[in-house]
Predict the 3D structure of the following.
Amino acid sequence: MPASGTVPLPLEITAVVKTFGKGPTQVRALDGIDLKITAGEFVAIMGASGSGKSTLLHAMVGLTDVDSGAVRVEGKDLSTMSDSALTRFRRERIGLVFQAFNLIPVLTAEDNVKLPAIRRDGLDAKVDHLFRRLGIHDRRHHKPDALSGGEQQRVAIARALVADPAIVLADEPTGSLNSVNGQDLCRLLRELCKDDGRTIAIVTHEPTVAMWADRVIVLKDGKVLTEFPVPAEHDPERLARDYQHALLGASAS
Ligand SMILES: Nc1ncnc2c1ncn2[C@@H]1O[C@H](COP(=O)(O)OP(=O)(O)OP(=O)(O)O)[C@@H](O)[C@H]1O
Ligand SMILES: [Mg+2]
């Protein structure tokens, strides 16, 4: 906590640069990103393929070291934390859903979900509730290779939520879901945010998903191109138009 006693922001990214490779093939995946996300906010990160969305999400949780700039999560500068402190911090405070689901193939769906919270009280009831809420209760004893892509995605989401994280970060969490399941997940994320006060940032390409957020941040070539608030009526067509305007405005300039 800062000395002033003010509550630190859940996420604060300052002038972050991340490059991959060297010489002529070098890619500036993040090119001076500044970004603040406030407590209880639901943010959607959009942008073309390769614009840096996944790299940004990984940098936000210290899974990718940045070349310069600072990533602060709940006021902590991740670059100052040891690997073990960072791992513990992530486990206690952050729920992460990767673009690739990263489920452990030898474990059942249920055991995959329990893994990050193995010693928690009330774990069985919590896991039971999550599997029912996500519509995969009948699949809980299956291993990942016996699950569809959408079912695996929902297992990964249950795993991210099992330890009641204050911050939930998800990379295209609806990418493998049909539209009914996708909308249901969006409603769940919104409840987690608006009812429970969690802070949520998701990467998505879909206006029907982004429309549930409070704010859209648009990335282009590793930079924040623009951002705009999502109108309260949650209208996907309006959001799609605002997003297109953001992208076209950039190409015109
Ligand atoms: N490990 C890596 N090594 C080299 N280049 C990388 C690596 N990871 C990402 N990149 C490059 O950095 C840029 C940003 O990649 P990133 O995965 O963040 O994009 P994205 O916006 O998530 O794209 P998508 O929508 O396709 O998932 C791309 O040009 C990508 O090729
Ligand atoms: Mg990505």
User: Anything to note?
Assistant: The longest strand covers residues 27-37. The chain has one domain: 11-252. The mean pLDDT is 92. Residues 11-252 form a domain with the Rossmann fold fold (CATH 3.40.50.300).
